[in-house]
Amino acid sequence: MLFRRRSLDGIKAGEITLAFRRWDRPRVRPGGRQRTAVGELAIDSLAPVERAGITSEDAARAGHASLDELFAELDARGDAPIWRIELHWAGEDPRRSLRERADLEGADFEELRARLERLDRASRHGPWTHETLDLIAQRPEVRAADLAAAVGREKHPFKLDVRKLKELGLTESLEAGYRLSPRGRALLQLLRRAERRQ
Predict the structure, then answer these.
(1) In the chain, domain spans
(2) How far is CA 185 from CA 126, 139, 163, in A?
(3) Which tens digits make up the pLDDT trace of 16-62?
(4) 3-state percent breakdown (helix, strand, coil) of the chain, nearest 5
(5) With contact defined as beta carbons under 8 Å apart, do 126 and 139 qualify?
(6) CATH architecture label of 96-197
(7) pLDDT tens profile 156-173
(8) Sign of the C-alpha dihedral, residues 48, 60, 69, 76?
(9) In terms of CATH, what superfamily is 5-92?
(10) I need a surface site. Which of 14, 181, 187, 191 has the fewest CB within 10 A?
């Protein structure tokens, strides 16, 4: 579920607590979480709603100046059923604090190295984790398509792999491309040191 930055800021401030979407089927579930640029959103409830059941108060809670403005936005998205989503800001993205944890000596390093080895073993295109960390370290803020092309890969699978590194707190997404987090830089340094000792 995509939101404009203005809406995300409103959700974080508690000013927006409702969203409406036209979907053929639900794309979120009650109790679920969604990561965004301002942190995690919690989905409180989800229900189909008839157009006539939406009020001016609902439009305001969804960050719109009027019902007409809300309906214009919904109608621009087609004629699928309308879904009413209650939500709230649930806190900062836990990956943010993880990215800052750069003290990786001992067991933390071994655990992360084992996670990367498992990702490499599960890959259909061979080991990729060290190469991708190296590539992002050497070429920060370079578009994913260009990074993927540099190693002979397609953009979409490459982005999925980078997302796996992001889940481990090793990379950060930027307006264009990526960069290594403090945790990612520390891990890459330790990996290079371990390789030199072999």
Answers:
(1) 5-92, 96-197
(2) 23, 13, 16
(3) 999 999 999 999 999 999 988 888 999 999 999 999 999 999 999 99
(4) 50, 20, 35
(5) no
(6) Orthogonal Bundle (1.10)
(7) 999 999 999 998 999 998
(8) negative
(9) Hypothetical protein. (2.30.130.30)
(10) 14
Query: Rounded to an integer, what is the distance from CA 114 to the centroid of its chain?
Result: 24
> Which tokens hold the place of 40?
């995690």
Kindly report the pTM of this predicted structure.
0.62
Q: Which residue has the tokens 């260009």?
A: 146
Which pair of tokens denotes residue 39?
């942190």
Rounded to whole angstroms, how far apart are CA atoms 158 and 147?
8
Percent of the chain surpassing pLDDT 70: 99
Element (H, E) at 82: strand 82-91
Taking Cα atoms as reference points, which of 124, 121, 109 lies closest to residue 168? 109
